[in-house]
Each structure stands twice: as C-alpha cells, then as structure tokens.
Specification:
Helix content is 15%, strand content 37%. It has one helix spanning 2-26; strands spanning 44-54, 64-65, 70-71, 82-91, 97-106, 114-118, 124-125, 130-139, 154-161. The strands form 3 sheets. It has a 4-stranded antiparallel sheet, with no helix packed on it. Strands 7-5-9 form a 3-stranded antiparallel sheet, with no helix packed on it. The mean pLDDT is 89.
Amino acid sequence: MTKNRNIIIGILLIAILLMAVAYSALATQLKLNGTAEIISEWNVKITSVTAQYVSQGCNAGNPEFTDTTITFNAELVKPGDYITYLVMIENTGTLDATLDNITLTPDENGSPAITYTHTEPETLLEAGKTTGFLIKVAYDENTTEMPSIKSRTITGIVKYVQK
C-alpha cells in the first residue's frame, strides 16, 4: 500500500512538473510601449496699447509694449486733465484663459495728485479671442496747489489663469 502511495505521489509530481513546463512553453509576454504628448499651448499676450483720449495740451507719449509689459509716459498739464490708454490682450494659445485679477499699484512716494484707474476686461478670454481694457491716468481735479512732487509711476499686473 505504501508502494502504491509512493507511485501515485511520484506520478502526481511528474504531472505537476509537466504542467509547469507546458505553461512556460505556452505563456506569452505582452509588452506595452506608449507616449503621451500635450499639444495645447498657453499664450496670452498684450497686442497693442493706444491712447484713446488725451486732454487738450497733454501728451500721451509713445506707449511701448512687449507680450507681457507696457511702458507709457503721460504728461498732464492742469487739474482735471487725463489720458486713457486702450490695452488689447489676445489669447493666441489653444487653452481658454480666465482673468484672475488686475492690480495697479501707484508709487507711494509719487504725487498724490496723479491717479490711476482701470476698467475690467472680459473675465473669460477664449482661445483665439481678444479683449481690451482702459487705463486712465488723471491729474486730480480737486488739486488746488501745485504739488511739490510732479510724477507718479505705476506697477500693474494683469493676471490670467487656466481654469
């Protein structure tokens, strides 16, 4: 009986060994290779800056701009004078852009008689679209004395984000 049991165990071990060899011979290894690529482009930029209104006797200068910066030199004559600049922004990318905020920060050491304000551009700037906003530089009409400091610079940020 133990001899038969040993024979049966031997046959089972041989069968398991043959099944393992057969599985290895019939197994197939599949390889996967792939590449992912982002084809969208983010490109929101300033396309033009032009003086829209200039009070009589004032000088709007020649505004200069790059894709991301604007420089203008406004010359105001008397209280109440102002100049407005139209800033055009274009989304030449393939992703829609959302206006996050506009921040205009006048120099604290500059003349308080010179103020800067702005309008709001479109909140959603779709791919391929253009929007604009106005920056107004003004000589405070309530000024009654000639200010000792006669200039005031501004730092501004127009921030668009992808949403």
